[in-house]
Amino acid sequence: MAEVNYTASTASANGDESLEPSVEILDPRITSSSHSNDKHSEDSDEEKKVSNRPSRDAWRQQRLPAWQPILTADTVLPAFFLLAIALIPIGAGLLVSSNSVKEFVYEYTDCISTDGKTKCSDIIGKSMNGTFKFGKKKWRGNKIKCECIHNFTIDTPFDAPVFLYYGLSNYYQNHRRYAKSRDDTQLAGKQANHIKDCHPYDYDKNNRLIAPCGAIANSLFTDTFQLYYRPTDSNYEPIDLAQTHIAWPTDKEYLFNNPKDGFDSKIGRPPLWTKNIDDLDPNHPINNGYDNEHLIVWMRTAAFPTFRKLWARIDHDQNMLWRQSLPAGSYQLKIQYNYRTHFDSYTAGKYVYISNTSWLGGKNVFLGYAYITVGTICFILWLSFLILVKKYGQKPKDIVDIGKKTKYMFTKPKPVDSGDESTQPLNTNNPTVTFSQSQ
Predict the structure, then answer these.
(1) Is the residue at 92 inside a domain?
(2) Residue 79 forms beta bridges with which residues?
(3) Where does the pLDDT of residue 25 fall: very low under 50, low under 70, confident under 90, or very high at 90 and above?
(4) Which tens digits make up the pLDDT trace of 127-186?
(5) Which of 84, 95, 175, 289 could form a disulfide with 379 if both were Cys (CB 3.0 to 4.6 A apart)?
């Protein structure tokens, strides 16, 4: 590109000055070398000044191609209908699967002790001091135990495998300070480095490091269960409950490991515990320390205040009576009541569940009802919009309102060779629709 500048030329013979155009070449492809060097130096200076300029690619500058659908009746109605016919059957299938799970539930929050007079919750409450909160007061381990017994009957067999769960209600494991009160490095068998997150359950009164530290470990669920089955006209027989292989394999392999050199004899135990970390399961030596599966299950905090956690598996291989299923009949459940949930201003409910599973897991009707509810809403919206479109909807050609005062009106087409230029085809693909200017 060239730019023309007018400059004064040399005076003529008569002394007059004339303006002659001088052409300054601005095309960078044909500039002189000196001009190029100057330009390069200027660019270098400019690059230095804008060295912090962000990248100008389409991703960072948000210039990527985008598509925004135009919502019309022809697109929205099929979408609602397809969602309805997809979600409702899925929800029904989930409900059928959940209802196929057999489950026995018993709340033992206020169960009566074997003496037949006193609630176990009262016995355990009187034997403990302090309050369960972050503060100066701490619990002392409870050595007084209470046992309650519940007899029940199962009408139909529970197909194997069968599991035993414990459940808690109004128990907030999702509290921010509670969920943070742990040291994952310590639980992995390494040297603890986040002990400050465990305060006030980091050191005991003798200034020994607590293992495991934190409020979650300190509040470990300690109730135990034993299930008995009575065949016809016989005594109760204990059912083997396997307390291993109840935790997630990934948790046990990667997140929880005992120290390679064993536990230091100078470590302390959580204030609520009556056992040391390396003596949690005397019957199974490999199920102690941070590898204890009851501890692993408890440390995976629940998202809601009402939850259940796996406590044991029915060992179906140990007896022919319950090899294929947990048979119908009379049962007895013995509960060793150790865990306090009764306080002056707070009470959490305690439950025990005996249940089998389906391909979807345990009994849970929420997901099925959620699918059916959303599918029903989509169907109602589809039906409502369909009625509105049929009753009030207009096609695009009906939206154009042409009256007597309209400058152009529709007229019958005339032959092209008639010489009348007032008639012009509106669309070459549809020559019968024409406009004619009114007089």
Answers:
(1) no
(2) none
(3) very low
(4) 664 444 444 444 455 567 899 999 999 999 999 999 999 999 999 999 999 999 999 999
(5) 84
Q: Which two tokens mark 328?
A: 């119908």
**Domain span at 269:** 102-356
Would the pLDDT of 73 be above 70?
Answer: yes
Rounded Cα distance, 342 and 125, in Å = 7
| Cα distances (angstroms) measured from residue 114 to each of 111, 146, 334, 337 | 9, 8, 10, 11
Domain count, the chain: 3
Side chain identity, residue 325: S
| Residue 439 one-letter amino acid | Q
- Residue in the block written with tokens 């057999």: 102
Say how far apart CA 127 and CA 340 lie, in whole Å: 10
In this structure, the answer to whether residues 244 and 108 fall within a common structural domain is yes
User: Cα separation of 242 and 319, whole Å?
Assistant: 13
The mean predicted confidence, pLDDT, of the chain is 81
Specify which residues 409 forms β-bridges with: 436
Residue 111's CB: how many other CB atoms inside 10 A? 21
pLDDT for the residue 380: 97
On whether residue 369 sits in a domain, the answer given is no
Burial group, residue 322, by CB count within 10 angstroms (0-12, 13-18, 19+)? buried
Tokens linked to 413:
């087409």
Note the pLDDT tens digit of each residue in 329-359: 999 999 999 999 988 888 999 999 999 999 8
DSSP-derived secondary structure for 278-299: GGS-TT-GGG-GGG-HHHHHHH
Residue 130, Cα to own-chain centre: how many angstroms? 36
Q: Which residues pair with 235 in a beta bridge?
A: none
Tell me the sheet residues that pair with 19: 8
Determine which helix (DSSP H) or strand (DSSP E) holds 313, and give its type and residue range.
strand 307-314
Global pTM reads 0.71
Query: What is the distance between the alpha carbons of residues 279 and 48, in angstroms, rounded to a whole number?
Result: 67
What whole-number distance in Å separates Cα of residue 425 and Cα of residue 439?
18
State whether 196 and 332 are in the same domain. Answer: yes
State the virtual CA torsion across 348, 350, 351, 352 in degrees, nearest 10: 150
- Tell me, yes or no, whether 40 and 140 share the same domain: no
Give the pair of three-digit tokens for residue 259.
């120290």
> Which residues, other chains included, contact 421 with Cβ-Cβ below 8 Å and sequence gap of 6+?
none
